[in-house]
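User: I'm new to structure prediction. If I give you an amino acid sequence, what do you actually give back? Let's try with this one:
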Amino acid sequence: MRRVGVVLLSGLLLAGAACGSHKTNNASSQPAGTPAEGEVAASPAAGSGPVQAGQAPPSSGAAQAAETAPAEASPGAGPIESAGLTVYGDNLASRWEDWSWSATVDLASTSPVYSGQRAISATITQAWGGVYLHTDIATDISPYTYLRFAAQVTQAGQRYAVSLVDTNDKFIANPYFLANLGDITVGSWKYYRVPLAELGGTAKPIKGIVFQDGLGKPQPALFLDDVGFQ
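Assistant: Good question. You get back a string of structure tokens that encode the predicted 3D arrangement of the chain. For your 230 residues, that looks like this:
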């Protein structure tokens, strides 16, 4: 099922551009309006900005039927980077779905491809749109240290941020801008390993991964492949 909606926010985006530098999402760097520790933020309202910690992604997607088994993600079969838990590798792992909003997403793009035969292609159609890979079953990522994925863009200057969604369907932390680890490259793949500590996801079960527009406007195609944890 597709999850469609509009993500909003009232904070200010500050994207770091230095290659190889890490910028933590601690309280001192949170945008205005970020909820205090223990406070639950309201769900986003249309047109205001990127997501914040404690907000819920758009909620128009229907939840999957309740199950007791943990969500499944398959071991990677591609390059050495694929070790660990794979959420997307040629297709979404069992019990994962595309709940993206304000974006045109193709889960079976055949070019370019980082490994295997298919990749994700995503074109942001409205400001703050996002690629949302969702499971309704909690996924234990406590054995892992990084969110890993390959990314490629079609135009210089494209910017994105990544977030994790917790078991209450809320964003765990403020968006982490990929520019902190170096800009996504045009026409070639760049492999990212984002520390889970930067995403607030250390030793926590999750229900989703979000790649969100970081410019506040439509963007051309972003390509993602080999998405998972290690």
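You can read the tokens as a compact description of the fold. Here is one thing that stands out. The radius of gyration is 16 Å.
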